[in-house]
Specification:
Helices cover 36% and strands 13% of the residues. It is built from 4 helices and 5 strands, in the order E-E-H-E-H-E-E-H-H. Helix 2 crosses helix 4. The mean pLDDT is 93.
Length: 126
C-alpha cells in the first residue's frame, strides 16, 4: 500500500495465528476482572485464525488494490514454519477466545493504513 517492495523469507507458506488487538485487550480485561491472582496463558489467534504469508499477501492485494513488487529470499535461521497458539487454557479459565476473523482484522488494518497513508510516507535522512 506504500509502494515499497516486500521481501518474503522462505516460500511464504509459513503459518501464524493472527490476533486483533481488541481481542488481546478483551483477554487482558477478562483476566483483570477475574478472581485469578496469577496465571500463564498463551494468547493468540488459535487454530481458527491462521494465515500463511501468501494468504495474507493475497488478502492485502485484493482489499487494497495494491500490487507491490515481491521478492523471495532464503529462509532465515530459526524461523518457525508453523506457529499456532494453544489458547485452550484461556478459553477455560477466562471464557475467552478471539472474536475477530483474520479477514475482518486485515480489512480493518487496510482501511486504517489507507486512511493514514501519510504516516508511512516519511524517510529518515542521514
Amino acid at each position: 500500500m506504500t509502494g515499497k517492495p516486500i521481501t518474503i523469507y522462505g516460500d511464504g507458506k509459513q503459518v501464524r495465528d493472527v490476533l486483533c488487538v481488541e481481542d488481546l485487550i478483551d483477554a487482558f480485561d477478562r483476566f483483570l476482572n477475574s478472581k485469578l491472582k496469577h496465571e500463564v496463558f498463551n494468547i493468540g489467534g488459535g487454530p481458527k485464525n491462521t494465515l500463511s504469508l501468501l494468504e495474507l499477501f493475497e488478502m492485502l492485494k485484493s482489499m487494497s488494490g495494491a500490487n507491490p513488487k515481491v521478492s523471495f529470499a532464503e529462509w532465515r535461521p530459526a524461523d518457525q514454519k508453523v506457529y499456532i497458539s494453544n489458547i485452550n487454557r484461556a478459553k477455560v479459565l477466562l471464557n475467552w477466545e478471539p472474536k475477530t476473523s483474520p479477514e475482518d482484522g486485515v480489512k480493518r488494518l487496510v482501511s486504517w493504513v489507507l486512511n493514514n497513508i501519510e504516516l508511512f510516507k516519511w524517510e529518515c535522512s542521514s
